[in-house]
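User: Sequence recovery, please. Input:
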């Protein structure tokens, strides 16, 4: 663990954190703006599709997916209803536990999610990797991983 520098000025550390937040928000706005423009996906919908495409059998229990996506059950239901209406996901009852319902990508959803993931990677290469470089991008990810495990 890194020992904090006791000489770091209060204004400096607050400014550092402000820059992290501002940089994240500007980058996320650019990324999600391009995803919305290309695929018509809102951030929550895109997040759900990405989580599903990375999951075994492209499905997850609804309650787990809602929790990972940081959505309330009502908020998740609204997003899921829109994704079902767009034929991107379907709800599948668990064959072994009637209390569990899975959310699964449809064939169309798998196609859209695959294209959106590839577009996301292309955009991130341009707006993150290109300006920061590989080493700084990896260091940023490592730093965020530490903060997530420390504070999460």
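Assistant: Recovered sequence (152 residues):
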């Amino acid at each position: 663990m890194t020992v904090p520098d006791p000489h770091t000025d209060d204004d400096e550390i607050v400014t550092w954190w402000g820059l992290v937040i501002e940089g994240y928000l500007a980058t996320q706005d650019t990324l999600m703006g391009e995803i919305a423009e290309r695929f018509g996906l809102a951030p929550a919908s895109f997040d759900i599709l990405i989580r599903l495409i990375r999951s075994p059998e492209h499905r997850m229990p609804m309650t787990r997916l809602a929790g990972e996506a940081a959505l309330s059950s009502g908020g998740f239901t609204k997003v899921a209803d829109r994704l079902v209406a767009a034929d991107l996901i379907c709800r599948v009852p668990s064959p072994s536990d009637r209390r569990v319902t899975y959310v699964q990508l449809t064939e169309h959803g798998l196609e859209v999610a695959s294209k959106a993931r590839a577009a996301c990677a292309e955009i991130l290469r341009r707006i993150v990797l290109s300006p920061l470089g590989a080493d700084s991008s990896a260091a940023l990810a490592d730093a965020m991983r530490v903060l997530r495990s420390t504070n999460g």
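DSSP finds five helices and three strands in the chain.
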